Q: What sequence folds into this?
């Protein structure tokens, strides 16, 4: 089983992916192949795209490398690389699906897409709490809304939500979220 996870920044994509990991899925982020290529850590792949791009794995460089790879190898290149890296796993969850090409690739492989959502105010509180280096340009709710607009222009996140197989609102507790994920993918009792 392949499950892709999409959603806006700080909606809870990684949290949902980690819940699935606890349930036996192998977890990988769409940015992991990009980090691996930038850092030269590519021995786990059966193929590695050739690309003339070097740099530190910053959010900007990852986005730029992703753009270059998609132009050269197709919109689904990151999904293909992620699944290739985890080719020995029975169940895979791909965290951070960001384009329609990636969505189509997951569905073509027989997978499903979960879209995680939360109100901007909640997502901004989470951003402040996690204090990640990659989020340092977002210092206010207005900054977050501008980032959402930019991401929408770049990736059409609203369209991705429309084609999702499952939409999960993540505005409650971790336990609530876990229950929603388990019931959404139909694991029910076998997960316990």
A:
């Amino acid at each position: 089983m392949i499950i892709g996870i999409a959603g806006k920044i700080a909606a809870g994509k990684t949290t949902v992916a980690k819940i699935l990991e606890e349930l036996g899925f192998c977890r990988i982020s769409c940015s992991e192949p990009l980090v691996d290529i930038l850092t030269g850590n590519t021995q786990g792949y059966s193929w590695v795209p050739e690309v003339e791009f070097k740099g530190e794995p910053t959010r900007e460089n990852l986005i730029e490398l992703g753009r270059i790879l998609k132009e050269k190898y197709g919109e689904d290149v990151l999904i293909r690389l992620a699944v290739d890296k985890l080719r020995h796993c029975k169940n895979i969850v791909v965290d951070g699906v960001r384009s329609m090409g990636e969505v189509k690739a997951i569905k073509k492989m027989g997978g499903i897409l979960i879209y995680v959502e939360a109100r901007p105010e909640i997502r901004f509180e989470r951003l402040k709490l996690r204090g990640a280096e990659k989020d340092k340009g977002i210092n206010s709710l207005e900054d977050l809304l501008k980032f959402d607009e930019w991401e929408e222009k770049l990736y059409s996140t609203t369209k991705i939500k429309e084609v999702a197989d499952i939409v999960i609102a993540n505005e409650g507790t971790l336990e609530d979220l876990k229950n929603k994920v388990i019931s959404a993918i139909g694991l029910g009792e076998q997960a316990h």
Notes: The chain has a mean pLDDT of 90.
